[in-house]
Amino acid sequence: MFASILRYRWLRELRALWPWAVGLLLLALAGQLALTSPRTSVNLDSIGSLRALPGQAITLSHPVSERVLVTYTSGREGGLDLRFEQARLAPETLELLRRVGIMAPAVEAPASWITRAEPGIGAESMSSFEVAAVDSGKLPRTLLLRVLAGATPRQVRLELLARGAPLEVTLALPWTGDAHAPRKMLRLGETELLLPGALPIKLLIPPEASMRAIISLPDKPQASQSADLEFGTFTGREGGGLAVSALGIEAAPGAGSLLACGGTAGSLLWRAAGRLATGDCPESVGPITVRSLQLRSDMADLTVGGDAWVLEDGQPLGEDLLSRLRQQPVWWALLLLVDGLLLLWALLAIVPGPRRITVRGVFISYRRADSGPRVGRLHDRLVARLGAERVFLDLESIPAGEDFDRFIADSLSRVDIVLAVIGPQWLELRDEHGQRRLDAESDLVRREIAAALLAGVRVIPVLVGGAPMPTADQLPSDIAALAGRNAMAIGDLKFLRDADDLIDQFEYAPVHSTGNGTP
Fold first, then answer.
1. What is the 3-state composition of the chain as percent helix, strand, coil, each rounded to the nearest 5?
2. From the record, what ranges are coiled-coil (predicted)?
3. Mapping DSSP to helix (H, G, I), strand (E, B) and coil, where does residue 442 land?
4. Taken in order 14, 20, 22, 26, is the CA torsion positive or negative?
5. Region class of 240: left (phi > 0), else alpha (psi between -120 and 50), else beta
6. What was the pLDDT predicted at 273?
7. Where are the domains of the chain?
8. Is 44 exposed, middle or buried (0-12, 13-18, 19+ CB in 10 A)?
9. 377-423 tens-digit pLDDT
């Protein structure tokens, strides 16, 4: 039943090229699978605060524009202690201390800063620190903040480290006018200095040297208490923050829980999964704004904003390009159409087609006065494709003195196909008496076609010169069955192509055929 599908030459040629169809289909599917890798950027405001647990590090990459990086001010009943792996007093601080009669060492050493209240004074006043770049033209490459577990539920700990540039840390207590206000204890190496509360202190921290903050929260039951660090010029009412090109949160040392690379709204990252998984952010095309960090004893919440490409727990967030195509009906329909056409092309390989046969010979029946020149061209093409020994042309193939009927019967026994060539005058050519030649029982063309039909040979009407196919009532009764045969037309302008299409038909027989030409 499927054999008729392949009656067209172009379909047979497509069927022969089915490996190309399979290859193109696989290539198309692979390309569409690749479209699931590019990801759109995500608006960080929409995913809420980012959480870091004790032991996890928050990495802020390539801060831009802001010299002030982090600031913190404690509550009036809180405490703040700082530990520095390495630090030295800034020159302006050394000069300030000298003026008030305090001689401090100009050395780089481990340091600590402790706020303590005098006995009997009670609660401390607010204490604060500010972390900034020493040089506004050279900001740190990376700012790392590691959340540490608190020793008590009312204590939070944070470690801060800068890579690529030194930092300066300014420490201060406000002046309250009270002579017994809390004082600051500064230890620098082996030297301890007890400083007035209102005296500002500035320390210089070399790159890769860590600073650890130990913050004590008020010892009063409250629903949620936290130490709030602010970044850049952020204020709760005015917004703002520190612009960075990327931020990450470690799940464990060396393993990422979250990586966000700054982008623009709706932008695509073509190698999202691969690049983000290796921690490789593209060149920044948009900033991530880091606003605040709420520290509690058991966790920290980082508030950020902006657009970014995000990898969370190994999975890229945001829509892929294929999902975006689904939202465009026209493009999605074209993509499905291409897939469908390639699939149909590949399926042609399994469609049961006509059975290939071996053509023993072809007999050409024609009228010289009607289609002689065209038959000559057709004969040459048949000889070129099949060989002269398998092509029989009635008038040229009949030896002199041979009996017509015996020659026709002998020729038909050696061929599988008879071509009945019908030209514009084939049906109406008349003899010298004005009678139609086809109506005469002695007409050679009529006898050839009638004998072929009677013998069950496959007869193909071949229309040339624009001739129409005769109807059954236009033909004598012994060849009226010719009108029911499927005809092939050969045009003058497309003669060779049409002739080749005709010859291609010789090579196949329908699966259900029981004619003489069936093996």
1. 30, 35, 40
2. none
3. coil
4. negative
5. left
6. 52
7. 3-35+324-350, 39-66+232-319, 67-225, 355-509
8. buried
9. 999 989 988 888 889 886 555 666 667 778 788 888 888 899 999 99
pLDDT at 514: 35
| Summary mean pLDDT of the chain | 81
Backbone angles phi, psi at 361, to 5 degrees: -175, 165
* Separation CA 9–CA 7 (nearest Å): 6
What are 473's two structure tokens?
């009532």
Dist. CA 262–CA 306, nearest whole Å: 8
Distance CA 505, CA 194 (A): 108
- Report phi then psi at 338, rounded to 5: -60, -45
Dist. CA 458–CA 415, nearest whole Å: 9
Q: For residue 432, how many other CB atoms are within 10 A of its CB?
A: 5
User: 430-458: per-residue pLDDT in tens?
Assistant: 888 889 999 998 888 998 899 999 988 99
Q: Which CATH class is domain 355-509?
A: alpha beta
Residue of 52, 19, 5 lying closest to 290 (CA atoms)? 52
**SS3 labels along 21-74:** HHHHHHHHHHHHHHCCCCEECEEHHHHCCEEECCCCEEEEECCECCCEEEEEEC
Rounded CA-CA distance 283/438 in Å is 87
**Who contacts 352 (Cβ-Cβ below 8 Å, separation ≥6)?**
2, 3, 511
Tokens for 292, please give them.
């605040």
